[in-house]
Amino acid sequence: MTGRFAPSPTSAMHLGNLRTALLSWVFARREGEGFLVRIEDLDQQRVTAAHGVADQQLTDLAAIGLEWDEPVVRQSDRLGLYRDAITSLDTYECYCTRREVAEASQAPHDGHRPYPGTCANLSDSERAQRRTQRPAALRVRSEGASFAIHDRYAGEVTGLVDDFVVARGDGTPAYNLAVVVDDGLQGVSQVVRGDDLLSSAPRQAWLADRLGFPVPEYMHVGLAVNAEGQRLAKRDGAVSLADLAELGHSAVEVRGWLLASLDLEPGLTNAELLQLPLEAWAAAARRWVVDPDQLAGLVNRMSTT
Ligand code: GLU
Ligand code: ZN
Fold this sequence. Notes:
Elements: E1 2-5, H1 15-29, E2 34-39, H2 44-49, H3 53-63, E3 73-74, H4 79-87, E4 91-94, H5 98-104, H6 124-131, E5 137-140, E6 146-151, E7 155-160, E8 165-167, H7 175-185, E9 190-194, H8 201-210, E10 217-221, E11 224-225, H9 241-246, H10 251-261, H11 270-275, E12 288-289, H12 295-304
Parallel strand pairs: 1-2, 1-9, 2-3, 9-10, 11-12
Antiparallel strand pairs: 4-5, 5-8, 6-7
Helix pairs in contact: 1-10, 7-8, 10-12
The chain binds glutamic acid (GLU) and zinc ion (ZN).
């Protein structure tokens, strides 16, 4: 069994990312298994704009007490592997803009608009003509498949697999393709990540199967959200380790908050965490409502109850 944490280095990790990282570490290491960190830096425009973030993310993970197997891989070093995988799939060129897909498609389902197949059966001359208008993305032919995955918290989840994008118009491999190729090639058998990605799991598992990789076990854990129930973001205030350090909160203290948010004693050591029975981690499935002003109180509340 091998687990992993796969941050995108587009902005500093916030408390929710750190909590997910802690959970992916514990679920791998409690069984004495491999734990990898993979930097998902394919979106070069956003990554370049956020210079230095990847290294900071590794520093932050270490600061809250996590360790991982070397080497840390970066997706930008692995483009050839993604190209080989794409070549092995049954794909077709798609010239649709986001807007065209939106107009032709049903309402988004969990944030994803099923592709209606507009470009699936174009003739050679139609393709030649459309190519002059716009660089083509590549979509995989799914033949309307549906695929079931098992998630430790959500149970069995079945999803329709549409003809999703595997390479973008600029040639960059799509996230859904790269994540599956990497998990497959790295032998990842346990995927722990935020529950915003649960609806992507059937599509990714179907692709893993297509590419000849075993389908991993999934654990989609509760995202950190603000008081309005929205995904935690910079505008929610002091939520990265750097912000919190400026306010005088150490990484050790933050680790205590993460544990308290999981209904665990904030002072537990790594060795103690790894000894806990699986049932002790049930709170991982719940979303964490973060109010930056009340974080320090979280641990106090915990030690008085
Ligand atoms: N890189 C993705 C993110 O930061 C996570 C991908 C995954 O865990 O599958 O949202
Ligand atoms: Zn299209």
